Amino acid sequence: MSTAAPAHRKASRPRADALRNRERIVAAAREMFVEYGADVPFDEVARRAGVGNATVYRNFPDRDALVREVVCSVMDRTARAARSALAETGDAFEALERFVHAAADERISALCPMIAGTFDQHHPDLEAARERVEGLVAEIMERAREAGRLRPDVDVGDLMIAVAQLSRPPAGTDCVRVDRFVHRHLQLFLDGLRAPARSVLPGTATTVADLRGPADSCPPSRR
DNA-binding region(s): which residue ranges (predicted)? Predict the structure, then answer.
């Protein structure tokens, strides 16, 4: 008597509704982290996302996992904005501009200090996302420099520091009211990156390696 061989089951893929729930949780968490900080209760995140607490914990067993996912998703979206601009226009400086403004819209300056604090800023997922962004920005800056559009005495670190500083509201100010000035001031900074340079910058260009350290790529505000 022969028995049929057991059928091999394919690994199940996440259902579409499960993926949508995860995306809604990440979007809600990003908004609330910006508004209230990383200590916002999970039940508040669940309420804003329109899901149950169990759904949040099923996707993100602890706060570190949720913060990490939020920061990685923000970095990936800003990178996609720059890549799309480069593909659509072929203009490296325009791609650089789109990256800077997209990073401000994502409130990357508010989220970045979270991974420079108690969370594991050297987690492989964070390192990979950061390397993707830095590599893309370095490529775009080099192409803009070769095209004669970008001044030669700046590097990726200069850009990252300026974006973090200029898109972070000064202490004691109303964040919502200050938001309307962010893109104006970022554009002033971007105009200062254009070649030919109008002045000689003090010091040397800031590289990605210069940013590595206890504060990582998100230095504290000096305002």
Answer: 41-60
